[in-house]
Amino acid sequence: MAKKTLNVGMIGYGFMGRAHSNAYRKVSQFFDLDHAPVLKAVAARNSDKLEPFARNWGWESTETDWRRLVDRDDIDVIDICSPNNTHHEIALAAASRGKMVLCEKPLAIDVDEAVEMVEAVEAAGVANMVWFNYRRVPAISLARQMIDEGRLGRIFHYRSTYLQDWTISEDVPLGGPTLWRLEKEVAGAGVSGDLASHSIDTAIWLNGPIESVSGMTEIFVKERPVQGSPSERKAVEIDDVCTFMARFSNGSNGTFEATRYARGRKNKNSFEVNGEKGSLYFDLENMHQLQYFNHDDPSHIQGWRTIMVTAFEHPYMKNWWVPGCVIGYEHTFINALADFLKGLESGEGTHPSFREALATQKTQEAVLDSARNSEWMTVD
Amino acid sequence: MAKKTLNVGMIGYGFMGRAHSNAYRKVSQFFDLDHAPVLKAVAARNSDKLEPFARNWGWESTETDWRRLVDRDDIDVIDICSPNNTHHEIALAAASRGKMVLCEKPLAIDVDEAVEMVEAVEAAGVANMVWFNYRRVPAISLARQMIDEGRLGRIFHYRSTYLQDWTISEDVPLGGPTLWRLEKEVAGAGVSGDLASHSIDTAIWLNGPIESVSGMTEIFVKERPVQGSPSERKAVEIDDVCTFMARFSNGSNGTFEATRYARGRKNKNSFEVNGEKGSLYFDLENMHQLQYFNHDDPSHIQGWRTIMVTAFEHPYMKNWWVPGCVIGYEHTFINALADFLKGLESGEGTHPSFREALATQKTQEAVLDSARNSEWMTVD
Amino acid sequence: MAKKTLNVGMIGYGFMGRAHSNAYRKVSQFFDLDHAPVLKAVAARNSDKLEPFARNWGWESTETDWRRLVDRDDIDVIDICSPNNTHHEIALAAASRGKMVLCEKPLAIDVDEAVEMVEAVEAAGVANMVWFNYRRVPAISLARQMIDEGRLGRIFHYRSTYLQDWTISEDVPLGGPTLWRLEKEVAGAGVSGDLASHSIDTAIWLNGPIESVSGMTEIFVKERPVQGSPSERKAVEIDDVCTFMARFSNGSNGTFEATRYARGRKNKNSFEVNGEKGSLYFDLENMHQLQYFNHDDPSHIQGWRTIMVTAFEHPYMKNWWVPGCVIGYEHTFINALADFLKGLESGEGTHPSFREALATQKTQEAVLDSARNSEWMTVD
Amino acid sequence: MAKKTLNVGMIGYGFMGRAHSNAYRKVSQFFDLDHAPVLKAVAARNSDKLEPFARNWGWESTETDWRRLVDRDDIDVIDICSPNNTHHEIALAAASRGKMVLCEKPLAIDVDEAVEMVEAVEAAGVANMVWFNYRRVPAISLARQMIDEGRLGRIFHYRSTYLQDWTISEDVPLGGPTLWRLEKEVAGAGVSGDLASHSIDTAIWLNGPIESVSGMTEIFVKERPVQGSPSERKAVEIDDVCTFMARFSNGSNGTFEATRYARGRKNKNSFEVNGEKGSLYFDLENMHQLQYFNHDDPSHIQGWRTIMVTAFEHPYMKNWWVPGCVIGYEHTFINALADFLKGLESGEGTHPSFREALATQKTQEAVLDSARNSEWMTVD
Question: Are D368 and D214 in contact (CB under 8 A)?
Answer without folding.
Answer: no
